[in-house]
C-alpha cells in the first residue's frame, strides 16, 4: 500500500501511568474492526487507523515517558475475514515476529452468517490462543458487540460466542476486551453509516477499554459513559435512513455473499512488519 505515512494520535495526558508498560512488541490480528474501518487518519484519509493503532500509540508513548524504548507494532488485520481465515492467514506470521502482546479479535463476520458453526470457530480461536500463549505472549481476545435494531437477531448467537470467549480466556490466561459490556456502544451515534463499524470516537472508546482489559489505566476514565440522550427522531426520517442503509450497505453485502466475494479480496495488511510506533 502506498500512502502518506500517518502519525497516530498519542495519549491525551502527560501524566505517567500507574502501571508500567512491559510489552515491547505488539501485533494485532483480525478483520475490519482491528483494521480500523471508518476511522481514517486525518492526514492520510485513505489509511484506516482504528482502536488497535491507537492502543499501540498509547502503549508506546507510555513506554517512552517511562524512559523505555518505543513499542514495536504491526497490524495484520484485513477486512472481510472470518475467524478461521484470520487464524490461517495471520497466526504463523504473528508467531514468527515474536511479539510479547497479541490481540486476536474476530468472529463478527462469522456470526452474520446464519450457518456458521459457533463451536467450530470457538475451537479454532482456542487453538490459536494456546499456540500464542505457548510462545510466552500475552493475548487479548474480544467478545462480540451487542447489536440493536435490524441486527438484534444476532445477539443470541453472539451471546453463545461470548460465553466461549470468556471460558477460553479463563482456561489459558488471556485478557478479554469486553465489547458486549460497553454501555456507550449501545448508542447508534457511535456507529458508521453501515451500522457494523465504529466511527472515530467509538474506536477511541474501545482503545481505552483495551487498556483496561490489559490491566492499565485508561486515557479517559469516562470512556464508557453513554452519550447525552439524543433528541427524538421522526418516524419518516428513521424510515428514510433505514431504506438508505438497505440500499447502500445491505444490498452490496448480500451480493458479495451470493457471489462468494469479500470486501477484503485482493487486500494486504496495512502494517505487515513490526516497526517502532508511531512510524517515523
TrEMBL record:
Keyword Hydrolase assigned: yes
Signal peptide residue numbers: none
MF terms (GO), sorted A to Z: hydrolase activity
Domain SGNH hydrolase-type esterase: 28-205
Ranges annotated as spanning the membrane: none
Organism name: Promicromonospora soli
Alphabetic keyword roster: Hydrolase
Any Pfam family: Lipase_GDSL_2
Listed Low complexity bias regions: 1-16
Region (Disordered): 1-20, 256-280
Protein name: SGNH hydrolase
High-level lineage: Bacteria, Bacillati, Actinomycetota, Actinomycetes, Micrococcales
Amino acid at each position: 500500500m502506498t500512502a502518506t505515512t500517518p502519525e497516530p494520535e498519542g495519549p491525551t495526558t502527560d501524566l505517567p501511568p500507574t502501571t508500567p508498560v512491559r510489552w515491547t512488541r505488539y501485533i494485532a490480528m483480525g478483520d475490519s474492526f482491528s483494521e480500523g474501518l471508518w476511522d481514517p487518519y486525518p492526514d492520510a484519509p485513505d489509511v484506516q487507523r482504528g482502536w488497535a493503532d491507537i492502543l499501540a500509540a498509547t502503549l508506546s508513548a507510555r513506554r517512552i515517558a517511562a524512559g523505555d524504548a518505543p513499542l514495536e507494532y504491526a497490524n495484520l488485520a484485513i477486512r472481510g475475514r472470518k475467524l478461521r481465515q484470520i487464524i490461517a492467514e495471520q497466526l504463523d506470521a504473528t508467531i514468527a515476529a515474536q511479539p510479547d502482546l497479541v490481540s486476536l479479535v474476530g468472529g463478527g463476520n462469522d456470526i452474520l452468517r446464519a450457518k456458521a458453526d459457533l463451536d467450530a470457530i470457538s475451537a479454532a480461536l482456542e487453538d490459536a490462543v494456546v499456540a500464542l500463549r505457548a510462545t510466552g505472549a500475552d493475548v487479548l481476545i474480544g467478545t462480540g458487540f451487542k447489536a440493536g435494531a435490524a441486527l438484534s437477531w444476532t445477539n443470541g448467537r453472539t451471546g453463545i460466542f461470548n460465553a466461549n470467549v470468556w471460558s477460553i480466556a479463563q482456561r489459558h490466561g488471556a485478557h478479554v476486551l469486553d465489547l458486549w459490556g460497553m454501555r456507550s456502544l449501545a448508542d447508534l451515534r457511535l456507529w458508521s453509516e453501515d451500522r457494523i463499524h465504529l466511527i472515530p470516537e467509538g474506536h477511541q472508546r474501545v482503545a481505552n477499554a483495551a487498556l483496561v482489559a490489559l490491566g492499565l489505566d485508561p486515557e479517559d476514565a469516562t470512556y464508557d459513559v453513554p452519550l447525552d440522550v439524543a433528541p427524538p427522531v421522526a418516524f419518516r426520517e428513521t424510515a428514510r435512513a433505514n431504506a438508505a442503509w438497505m440500499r447502500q450497505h445491505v444490498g452490496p453485502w448480500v451480493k458479495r455473499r451470493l457471489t462468494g466475494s469479500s470486501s477484503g479480496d485482493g487486500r494486504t495488511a496495512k502494517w505487515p512488519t513490526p516497526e517502532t510506533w508511531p512510524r517515523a
